[in-house]
Amino acid sequence: PYSTNPPCYTVEDSQIHPATQLRIVLIGGRRSDGSPSGKSSIGNFILDQHVFDTSRRTAQSEARQQEVFSRQVTVVDTPGWRWGDSREETPKLDQIEIQNSVHRCPPGPHVFLLVIPISLHFSQRVKASLKQHFELFNVDVFSHTIVLFTAVAQCSDEEVEFKIRRNPVLQWILQQCGNRKHFLNISNGEDRDQVKKLLEKIETLITNNGFRHCPVDRSQGETLRKEMRDLTERASKRFDQVQKQRNKLNKLISGGLQASI
Questions:
Q1: Are strands 111-117 and 21-27 parallel, antiparallel or unpaired?
Q2: Which superkingdom is the protein from (predicted)?
Q3: CA proximity to 116, closest of 193, 21, 27
Q4: Tens digits of per-residue pLDDT, 98-152?
Q5: Which helix (H) or strand (E) holds 79?
Q6: Residues in Cβ contact with 98 at an 8 Å cutoff, skipping those fewer than 6 apart
Q7: pTM value?
Q8: Nearest alpha-carbon partner for 80 in 38, 23, 127
């Protein structure tokens, strides 16, 4: 469903400086069974390019940029936490990558899209989990967030509204986000009007926020990168130690077998 032209650029490679720029960060959880929330698919849908890998769980925040409806749009995909899990249950590296997402689209994102599959059941645990994970950001994320309801099967706007009316947690989430919402049916990849309306809602939010993007602390970005390097190095050392112990054990077993022959 995605077109192949024009090519998509990474943020680092792009030298295009159009008059209109939109910087979007996709956030949200994943189901308790580990299945994805669809953020990567949403990123591909918005950019009309298959630039985010949908075959695996997102492990790192990744930014891609593309011209969409005469706007230069940057989308940042992020790791998801498990809906219902406390922040302490989310791996530290995932937490750091979520925090680092705002540094992937300098000088800072205009909007966060909270991706919520309409088929998901929302409980009080999900509400607590969402509040805790939003605290990973230093800014008032709610005032820069649009709730993006998604569906992979045919679903009408009326069905979405019905689900919201029946679920107090969804109502609470919308209230925190100024009742800003949009619905994307990604089963209908040819309907680009869905994306055009979403971009218009984002522009309205930017206008209401005084054309200010979310403030980003550069020093925090440097600290996060150092934390990631340290965690990765420690994990690599642990892996090497396990491999050495395994090789040593294999040699002992192999030597014992030869001695018994």
A1: parallel
A2: Eukaryota
A3: 27
A4: 999 999 999 999 999 999 998 888 889 999 999 999 999 877 789 999 999 998 8
A5: none
A6: 27, 61, 78, 79, 81, 133, 136
A7: 0.80
A8: 38
